[in-house]
Amino acid sequence: MLIYAVSSCSPTRHLEKGQVHLTANKVKITKPVKGISADDLKSLIEQKPNSKTLNIVSFKLWLHSINKKWGEAPVIFDEGLVADSKEKITRYLNNNGYFNSRITFNPVFHKRNKKKLKAEYIVTLSDPYHLKSLHYKIPDDSIKTLYFMDTLHSVLHTGQIYNAALFDKERDRIVSELKDNGYFGFDKSFITYTIDSALNSRQMEVTLNIKNIILPPNAPGEMPKEIKHKVYYINDIIVYPDYQVFISDTAKNDTLIVTPRVQTKSNPYKFIYSPPLKIKPNVISRSIFFESEKKYNATDARQTFEKLNNLRMYKYIALDYTEVKNNPNTDSLKNYLDCTMKLTRNPVNAYSAEAQGTNSGGDLGLGGYLTYQNRNIFRGAEILDVRLKLAVEAQNRGLSDPENDNTYFFFFNTLEYGIDARLEIPKFLAPVRQNRFSRYFRPTTNISIGYNFQDRREYLRIITNLSFGYEWSMSKFKKHILTPIDLNLIKVNTTAAFDSILQEESQRFRDQYTDKVIFTSRYTYIFNNQQINKTQNYLFFRWDIESSGFLLNMALNAAGQPKNEEGFKTVFGIRYSQYAKTNIDFRYYIPIKDEHSLAFRAFMGIAVPYGNSIDIPFEKGFYGGGSNGLRAWQLRYLGPGAYPNTNSNIERVGDFQLEGNFEYRFPMYKVLYGALFFDIGNIWLWNSSETFPGGKFNVNTFLGELAMDTGIGLRLNFSYFIFRVDIAQRITDPAFDPGQRFVIGKYKWFNPIFNLGIGYPF
Q1: CATH number, position 677
Q2: R_g over Cα of the chain
Q3: Statement: residue 7 has pLDDT above 50
Q4: Residue at which a domain ends, from 345, 379, 396
Q5: pLDDT tens digits, residue range 317-359?
Q6: What is the pLDDT of residue 5?
Q7: What is the pTM of this model?
């Protein structure tokens, strides 16, 4: 029966006479060389075999064997495509300098099933051609001067193997350089190469030609006319700050003359608008990088577009250029362009609503959000976001005071509501002066304020927060975030029943439910060199530095405020926290092929209390577990250190964290993707704790206290969002005694944890 079941699922069972199932492609290079990969050549083969999950199992082919409407039908070998494949491989090798290489096709049939075939291509590489010399033919002296001023960045060099891609790259580089120096109409069709090759020596003499413009004759018998490329200067900059495509040009408009805030002879900008003017002109002028009377610069034009787009209040942005002719106000020896900026706005106001259901340890809950956004609240392209939250939960666990045990809605007995407002201003707000920083920084100022009320069976907590900070980008990949003021005021009232529980816990655990003030200053540096639509390795790096209570303590010391009876300083009668904290998050991504990829993450965080604090506030501590960490542990239920889990109901935070994660991501079927993952890490305390014995960090034992898990993930990738299910199993558990922490194969060891998430874990 087993043999029958296997044969009935064989992809060759129903093939017609003469048909052969293509099972694999293989490229063999007889003498491999650096720069020519067998995998790259294999990707050029026209006919692909059935896809394989993890490059091992033909999952889609198996689905088709069960139901012909599913998966993939077996790929029938087409001999006619072999010649096309050989031609593509030959063209690739020619473009990489290996002219006249030999490619032979070798069909390899399965030993026991002649209806299965592996297509093998054997490549014998020729000796490559090298660039012997580089010559230049540039009749325009101005262009020649510009070119030779920047030969340091040329990608063509004598002695290198011929590569057609490098020739194209050099053309693009030259075009970019010329467009940044006023050559508005120049394109790479004016750049050609003349190559003289000697077959015997396999050497190439290359001549780079940058041609002038050839004008066709005006009349029969005339010779074509050759003229130099024009260098253009910017003349007028005309801005339509509220452009509407379907409104007639004859509509009544006003014109506002705006003087740019630059120390040059630049002409004023012309703002043409239908009253009233809905945007402050200096907001637009700060986003304009080019100036009148200066040469056209393609990089400045691109920066202008990107910065206007970052304002988020514009839906469409168009920069149109028109050549100026016969203008008496311009220099007759120069060529000029008028730049017209047409800015089409997004709707000013936007609303959204969101509902959600929760299940936290069996406690059912309902929640909802209402969000309002204004994209131009003070006519300066400021973005105001206001979010209202309301949530209820049916909490069955925990202790409560019968006199304070409310039911808010049906059987829901806990309540949470709040409001958060965030204002984003597209400039550095005082005390930072605008002219001290480059416009290329793309600065924003962020101000936020929030209020959150939580009424649970054990306590009532009110959290008020206020923050002020800046963001700016110094380059395409680098971002800085500075938040000098981040104030959190937390007020907590606990029930008598919960107080009796707290008395038996450590001071650190009790501090979670006490009043506190957290006044922090924070700096973040982010580097991310991912480029959309480019398949290449990239990395993400984030470094956070945070200090709490330092500025507040200096102010109170200056005011001469004394300590309270317990020996601590207070503000508003509430003890404030002092600590220093830093963490590093490093991620590296390696795209392989056909949407397969590898993802690595390493995280390290350190927090140290000092002065007015004995421990790190619970809200600021490090934690492990959860859908984005070590996935075989619930969030905040890993560690610290070798803590043996004697009380499984206490959430844990630590002062020090190490964590590493790895994922292999691959496609499975249509929108269904898979992942194999491995996680390692833990959290620790700096000081011994009665609540968490074994949680203190020890340099001699911490490696043995690293938790490890592995698992598989399924992801539904809908492009605009990813729904994720991860199933994780513990490998080592630091909660057990040394020597017993490897759990695989132990009694009741198999205990998979399911995690749901939106988006990738890292």
Answers
A1: 2.40.160.50
A2: 34
A3: no
A4: 345
A5: 999 999 998 877 777 889 999 999 999 999 999 999 887 665 5
A6: 39
A7: 0.80
Does residue 239 contact residue 341 with C-beta atoms inside 8 Å?
yes
Domain boundary, last residue among 227, 244, 278: 227
Q: Are residues 56 and 109 in the same domain?
A: yes
Name the packing angle between helices 164-179 and 141-149 (round to 10°).
110
174 with 139, same domain?
yes
- 394, 415 Cβ separation under 8 angstroms: no
Q: CA end-to-end span of the chain, whole Å? A: 46
Structure-block tokens of residue 386: 């206001």
* CA–CA gap between residue 651 and residue 341 (Å, rounded): 56
C-alpha–C-alpha distance, residues 71 and 63, integer Å: 5
Q: Where does the pLDDT of residue 396 fall: very low under 50, low under 70, confident under 90, or very high at 90 and above? A: low
> Are 558 and 610 spatial neighbours (Cβ–Cβ below 8 Å)?
no
Residues 429 and 436: their CA atoms lie apart, in Å, by 12
Helices and strands (H and E) in the chain: how many: 11, 31
Give the span between the Cα atoms of 85 and 93, in whole angstroms: 12
Closest alpha carbon to 457 in 494, 503, 509: 494
pLDDT digits (tens, 9 = 90+) for 61-79: 877 778 877 778 888 899 8
Going by the DSSP 8-state scheme, the letter that residue 76 receives in this structure is B
Query: 399-428: b or e for each residue (b if 16 or more CB lie within 10 Å)?
Result: ebeeeeeeeeeeebbbbbebebebbbbbbb
Q: What is the pLDDT of residues 20-59, one digit of tens each?
A: 889 899 999 999 898 899 989 999 999 998 887 766 777 7
Within 268-359, where are the H helices? Answer: 281-285, 298-310
Query: Residue with structure tokens 């630590």?
Result: 654
What are the contacts of 530-539 at 24+ separation with CB within 8 A?
530/589, 535/591, 536/591, 537/588, 537/589, 537/590, 537/591, 538/588, 538/589, 539/586, 539/587, 539/588, 539/589
Interval 666-712: pLDDT, tens: 988 888 999 999 999 999 999 888 788 999 999 999 999 999 999 99
Residues 680 and 760 in one domain: yes
CA distance 182 to 335: 10
The residue behind tokens 């002879």 is 265
- d(CA 368, CA 388) in angstroms, rounded, equals 8
Per-residue pLDDT at 134:
93
Chain-centre distance for alpha carbon 539: 9
